[in-house]
Amino acid sequence: EDKVKKFLNFYERLAVGTNHRVFDVEVVNALWGSIIVSIVDNYRPWMVAYRDRRGNQNLWLDLEDLAGRLR
To answer: Least C-beta-crowded within 10 Å: which of 2, 26, 44, 67?
Structure first.
């Protein structure tokens, strides 16, 4: 579980930076776009279950938002 959280948190930080225009979305898309979309698609069930267990529906929202923008 810790490894999955660390993995998702890395991409969440990248997404926060991109969503706040610290990182250029076109560059992020070129480098990691398909990876980010794939991560959200593949880990969404785990993310939802973890949010429910923790009672925190705000986890990894920037990551999901960025994946939606990169589709």
So the answer is: 2
